[in-house]
Every structure is written in C-alpha cells, then in structure tokens.
Amino acid sequence: MHKRKYSVGITMERQMTEFHDAPDAVRRTILKGAVVGGLASFGLGAFPFPAFADVDAKQWPGDAFKAKSEAETLKALYGKSAEASDKVSLDAPEIAENGAVVPIAVATTLPNVTGLAILVLENPNVLAAAYKIPAGAQASVANRLKMAKTSKVVAVVESGGKLYSASKEVKVTVGGCGG
Amino acid sequence: MAGTIRVRATASGDTTEVQSLIRHPMDSGFVKDAKGELIPAHHIEVVEFEHGGKTVFTALWGPAVSKDPYLKFSFKGGKAGDELKVSWVDNKGASDSLVAKIQ
Questions:
Q1: Cα(A123)–Cα(A147) distance, rounded to whole angstroms?
Q2: Is the distance from CB of A112 to CB of A160 less than 8 angstroms?
Q3: Among the CATH numbers 1.10.357.140, 2.30.40.10, 2.60.120.280, 2.60.40.10, which is that of B5-101?
Q4: Does the pLDDT value for residue A43 go beyond 70?
Q5: At the fourth CATH level, which superfamily is domain A57-172?
Q6: How many CB pairs under 8 A join A and B?
Q7: Nearest to A145 by CA among A162, A112, A124, A120
Q8: What is the pLDDT of residues A81-106, one digit of tens each?
Q9: Which of A26, A27, A42 to substitute to test the interface with B, most B CBs within 10 Å?
C-alpha cells in the first residue's frame, strides 16, 4: 500500500515535469521561428504549418496563368475577347527603372464590374494577376508586378458580361525576371 | 505563422479602402540562384478578403506579382470597428490569415 502510493507520487511528478516542459518546447519553437522569419523573409513560406486555409486554392485558374498570348489568356479566363475602351484607365509608369517592382493601378467607371485582369504581354506567361470583384465592390486595384522587359501592359475589365481593355507601353531598363 | 500579413482598412462614407502587404518571396520559377540552379516557382495563388461573412475581393496571382506583394482596392460597405479577414494560400499549400479592424 505504502509502496504503491510512492509510485503514484513519482508518476505525478513526472507528469508535471512533462507538462512544464511542453510549453517551453513550444515557446522555443515559436522563438526560433520568429528569428528565422525575421532574418530571411523568404523562410516564412516554407514552415510546415497545417493548412487552415478557408481559401479554396482550386479557384486558381492554372490554365490562364500558363497562357502565352493575350487572346489565349482571356479565353482561358473569361472565354471571350476584349474590346478597347476609354472607360478603363491604366496607371503605369512610362519607364520602370526596376522591372522587379512596377507599380500598376487599374480603375474603371464602368458599372457592374465582376472581374479585372492585368496582362504583361512580353512576360514568359502573359497573365500577371486577376481579381474577382463580387457585386458591391468598386473597381479600382493597385498592385506591383514584375516585368521581364519593355512590354505592353493590358488591363482587362469584365463589366456586365463583356470585356473592356486599356493598354500602355512600359519601358523597363532592368528586367525583373533573371536578376 | 506569425505576421506575414499587414493590412490597413479605412472606412470613409459607404466605402472601405483596403491596403495590404503580405510577406512572401513570390519566386517566379525563372530566376537562377548563385549556383546557377533554377529557383522553383513559389508564389501566392489566392488572396481573399472577407467582410461580414462575405468575400468582398479575391486576388488570383501568378508568379509575375512582385515579391512581398502590395495590394490596394476598395469595396462598398464596411464601417469603423468592423472586422475584415484576410487569408492567402500559395502554390506549396502554405497559408496565413489575419483579422483586422476597419478604422
């Protein structure tokens, strides 16, 4: 009886140390993660965190992103072609000094905009970014894109089931796809 | 994953302007490293912005989007104090999300 009590005591003690150890280990991992992440921002994406994404990766249009021409891209993305419109405005620099970061903004006064896409025609894959805009959102988007070399940039807006586009030539002095 | 997303949402009138910055390498798959080996493509594919249980904006990104992508857009609705949820997933299945308060 006495012996038994003793062994229970040991077990409890062990359990308690284990319990104390666990948060420590967790804390250490978190700290390590923070340091590595801070030093190398590109390390972050590689962490094997479980995907708790409520984002559905399947909606990513792989075919459209592989297309090599404007017509192909639009067909894959929207299944139709675009007509030029002055109601789509594309704001991009005349000359981009660094092709790795080219600020590009698209806005439109068209009603019922449901989609928006930005294409860089001379890039290895033409489609750079596409946006889905549920009703109620305003159609203006600004982002930064990479450009391999001097190229025509095309903004396409889907409005009321039709596609409208605007384009602009952007000169690139240092390309963004090859260092 | 701590802090890959920074977002600022400001309500004015009946629209909310959102600016977000996500930390991500966005490797295009065309760049070689110092040894001359191709760095495989690693980029965010989908970013979703949710307000009041509804998706208000979805970004579909290819590798041509710049490193540490910046995005600005606005949507109708949203007022100060509301929550805006941002989540992304990349082509390797990594993801992150953040709930921000609209200012």
A1: 6
A2: yes
A3: 2.60.40.10
A4: no
A5: SoxY domain (2.60.40.2470)
A6: 162
A7: A120
A8: 888 888 898 998 888 888 888 999 99
A9: A42
